[in-house]
Structure formats: C-alpha cells, structure tokens
Write a structure and sequence with these properties.
By secondary structure, the chain is mainly α. The chain has two domains: about 30-155, Cytochrome Bc1 Complex, Chain D, domain 2; about 170-285, Cytochrome Bc1 Complex, Chain D, domain 2 (Orthogonal Bundle), CATH 1.10.760.10. It has ten helices and two strands, in the order αββααααααααα. It has a two-stranded antiparallel ribbon with strand order 1-2. Strand 1 (about 45) and strand 2 form a beta hairpin. The structure holds heme C (HEC) (2 copies). One heme C binds next to helix 2, helix 3 and helix 4.
Length: about 300
C-alpha cells in the first residue's frame, strides 16, 4: 500500500512527459512541413527536368500516401498489412535513410537516385514501379519526398562513387571474384552458394528491428536497386543503408569489385546479363567457397 502510493506520482509524471513529447513532436512536424515545403530543398533536378514539391501534393495523396503516410513517416493506412516477416515497411521519409544510392554509405542520395527508384520499384517488397507517372511527375515527387526530413535542409547529397569502366570478363576474374566473396565473408549472410542461407541469415534485422532476409542470388529475384552490372557494383560499394547489408568501399578495390560482380553473376540463374559468367564458372567447375578456410 505504502509503496504503491509512492509509485503513482512517478508513473503519472512519466505519462505526462510522454504526452508532452509526442504532442510537441507532432506539432513540430506539421508546422515544419509547411516551412520545408517552401524551402529551396523542396525541389529536384533530374537531367533537364526541375521538380517542384508543391506540384506533387496531389499525386502523392493519390499514389503514395496509403503506404508512406500523410507525414511521410511510413505509417500510411495500408502499412499495417505489411507486417509479413521479411517484407520491409514503407520507407519513413522523415529519416531520409535510403537503400538505393549512388552515394557513399551514410550520405543522402541524389535526386536521380530517388527518381530511378520511383520508376523501378523494389522487387520483393510492396513498393510498385511507377511507370505510368510522367517524368515531370516523378521529379516533382522526388522534391516532395525531400520536404519531409530536416536532413535536406542542412545536408547536400553525397558525391556519387566513381565506377571505372567494366573490364573484359576472363576466367581469372571470375575466380578472383570468388576469392573476394570468400575473403569479405559475404557467405555469412548470403550463403556459400548465394542461397541466402548463411549462418547469420536468420538473425538479421533492419534498423526498424524488422526481420530481413539477405538477397538470394539463385532464385531469380531482382536486386532492389537495379539489375545491371553497374547496379550490382554500386550495391555492395555503397551498402543498403538502414539494413545489415554493409558498404565494402573501404575493403574492396575497384578492380576487385568488378571481379566480384562477375562471380555474383555466375551464381544467378540464366538471365539477360550473365551468359558468359555462367559459361566460365561451368568450365572452371567452380565449387562453392569454403566457409572455414583455416581448417
Ligand atoms: C503499396 C505500398 C506503397 C506505395 C503505394 C508506395 N510505396 Fe514507396 N515503398 C513501399 C515500401 C514497402 C518501401 C520499402 C521497400 C524496401 O525497403 O524493400 C518503399 C520505399 C520507397 C522509397 C525508398 C527507396 C530507397 O532507396 O530506400 C521511395 C523513395 C519510395 N518508396 C517512393 C514512393 C513514391 C514516390 C510513391 C508514390 C508514387 C510510393 N513510394 C508509393 C511501399 C509503397
Ligand atoms: C551482415 C549480412 C550481410 C553481409 C555480410 C553481406 N550482405 Fe548483401 N545483403 C544483406 C541483406 C540483409 C540484403 C537484403 C537487403 C534488402 O532486401 O533490403 C543484402 C542484399 C544484397 C544484394 C542485393 C541488393 C538489392 O538491392 O536487393 C547484393 C548484390 C548483395 N547483398 C551483395 C553482397 C556482397 C557482394 C557481399 C560481400 C562483399 C555482401 N552482400 C555481404 C546482408 C549482407
């Protein structure tokens, strides 16, 4: 009894503090959003198109709000249906953390990156490809996305990483790529055959503490951030921010990165891009990497 009485004021003060902090947050957000909508950051430049956030108010409401939410926080009314394990929640634009970037890990993406994502959609997720939207509408939506986060008010997009021209594929390169895959321990998550079944695979979570599966190279899935050789190179050299998929820019040299792209291609089932890689891997009789080379 005595101790219970003592606990009440403490509990009350916690509840009051919580109410105040969420109220202040919500107010700040609505007020700030108006402000940021009028700021220079609420624009975009994609090729010779200039995007204007205000022009995207209607298309956003029509096409995006159901998932990404009125406040851009990823809490649209459909978001609750996405709690299927291994399916990502709609992106919270207030955080401005994006998977698909041409820019180094930790930095903001370019307008072009966001524009490309909108047109491409994201495989193995509920993010559709917005092919019916015009280029102008997509550019306007990029600008609109940028009005949701304070980061765009103070930070500029990162500088896109340098990607040297793709070299000629040779058997030596495919073999060297496999060595990089082993040395960087990609198999810990992706598995020795790229089947997304490495020892860490079942333990991974994203920044929102949702379970997340590594990419399966062998089941015909498309990488979320593009399928060309350059896209694959970019994915492991920039990392998918907000996920356990790290950037290897500090550990893999550009030349080795191309070797790795060729090896990853050889793991994929036959597609429009990997004829030569598969042929070479077959001729070499490549076996899966050894996860315990010291033994
Ligand atoms: C049916 C739900 C849904 C709709 C509608 C939707 N999205 Fe998404 N969107 C998602 C999900 C889910 C993700 C996260 C996917 C992932 O991380 O694998 C996402 C991610 C994104 C990303 C982040 C990409 C990155 O690199 O991290 C952008 C940008 C985006 N959406 C823009 C839009 C725009 C613009 C529209 C409207 C034209 C839209 N989305 C409509 C579900 C949706
Ligand atoms: C700590 C675990 C982990 C390690 C180590 C790791 N990855 Fe990943 N990787 C992931 C996860 C998780 C995803 C899926 C992200 C998603 O779906 O949003 C992924 C996705 C990918 C994708 C596809 C991205 C896309 O857009 O769908 C590629 C390509 C890739 N990884 C390559 C590599 C390579 C190459 C290495 C080693 C140099 C590596 N990964 C190491 C966890 C890891």
């Amino acid at each position: 009894m005595h101790t219970n009485l003592l606990k009440w004021p403490l509990l009350l003060s916690v509840v009051v503090a919580l109410c105040f902090s969420t109220a202040a947050y919500a107010q700040l957000t609505t007020y700030q959003l108006q402000d940021w909508l009028n700021s220079p950051a609420a624009s975009s430049h994609v090729g010779d198109i200039t995007g204007n956030a205000k022009a995207a108010a209607l298309p956003y409401r029509r096409f995006c709000v159901g998932c990404h939410g009125e406040l851009g926080d990823g809490n649209g009314e459909n978001a609750v249906w996405f709690l299927t394990p291994l399916y990502a929640q709609p992106r919270n634009f207030q955080l401005a953390i994006f998977k698909c970037r041409s820019t180094p890990t930790g930095t903001l993406p370019t307008d072009q990156d966001l524009y490309d994502t909108i047109g491409r959609g994201m495989d193995r997720s509920n993010m559709p490809a917005w092919i019916p939207l015009s280029k102008q509408e997509r550019a306007d939506l990029v600008a609109w996305i940028k009005h949701y986060s304070p980061r765009w008010q103070t930070e500029k997009a990162g500088t896109p990483i340098q990607i040297p021209p793709e070299p000629e594929i040779t058997p030596e390169r495919v073999k060297a790529g496999q060595d990089v895959f082993a040395r960087m321990q990609c198999f810990k998550c992706h598995g020795v055959q790229g089947k997304a079944n490495g020892p860490s695979a079942s333990t991974l979570t994203d920044d929102l503490s949702q379970p997340i599966a590594p990419f399966n190279f062998t089941d015909g899935s498309r990488p979320k951030c593009g399928s060309t050789d350059v896209d694959i190179y970019r994915i492991f050299m920039t990392g998918l921010d907000g996920t356990p998929m790290p950037s290897f820019a500090d550990n893999i040299k550009p030349d080795e990165a191309w070797d790795l792209v060729f090896y990853l291609r050889s793991l994929q089932p036959h597609n429009a891009y990997n004829e030569k890689e598969r042929q070479i891997a077959n001729q070499l009789g490549l076996k899966p990497v050894n996860p315990n080379p010291a033994q």
